[in-house]
Design brief:
The protein has about 180 residues and is α+β, with helices and mostly antiparallel strands. The protein has three helices and nine strands; from the N terminus they run αβββββββαβαβ. Strand 3 and strand 4 form a beta hairpin. The radius of gyration is 16 Å and the shape is globular. The relative contact order is 0.20. The structure holds nickel (II) ion (NI). Nickel (II) ion binds next to loops.
């Protein structure tokens, strides 16, 4: 946080960009970074590339938010998000670009995503609950927004270890991307 690239509106990719070895290499590097950091998502501006590309991978399984459906590693290019229902819920979000902090952010819980994959094919997904939150957090990065921008009450921005100690939220209950 503080790096200017994180605050820029990233540029869309053209279908012809997708075949470039540099882009394939960037995606491979982002996957390594995501796995190394143990996050659920990473957007290109987080690695100082101001382009509209993000990767998301969710292991899934049981949590206090219920059973989270797994999502295999997926590349999203030029994603567009449409809110299908304004009903919102709050999750303690974290971000690899804001280490050590968590913030309680309320977001709509039913969205539709339309994006291009690395082969240039368009696909759509509908997300509910926690997954809707993860996708909105991730795609916010492409518009220069961070989760802290959504925190309405600064008392809801805390250190990670304080959250565990005082708010009683375990590791499986948060997002970090
Ligand atoms: Ni993030």
């Amino acid at each position: 946080m503080g790096h200017p690239t994180l605050r820029q509106v990233a540029r869309p990719l053209e279908p012809r960009d997708l075949a470039s070895p540099a882009l394939q290499e960037l995606v491979a590097d982002m996957v390594d970074t995501l796995h190394h950091a143990g996050g659920v998502g990473l957007a290109a501006p987080q690695v100082d590339e101001s382009i509209r590309l993000a990767i998301i991978e969710i292991p899934g399984g049981a949590s206090r938010y219920g059973e989270i459906p797994p999502l295999p590693l997926t590349v999203f290019i030029n994603p567009e998000i449409e809110v299908l229902d304004e009903a919102s819920a709050a999750f303690w979000e974290g971000c690899l670009s804001i280490p050590g902090l968590r913030g309680l952010v309320e977001r709509p819980q039913h969205v539709k995503v339309r994006a291009m994959n690395i082969a240039g094919l368009t696909f759509e997904m509908e997300l509910n609950g926690f997954l809707a939150t993860v996708f909105q957090h991730e795609f916010d990065h492409l518009d220069g927004r961070l989760y802290v921008d959504h925190i309405k009450d600064s008392r809801n921005l805390v250190f990670e270890d304080m959250l565990e100690r005082h708010v009683g939220v375990g590791h499986g209950d948060k997002t970090r991307d």
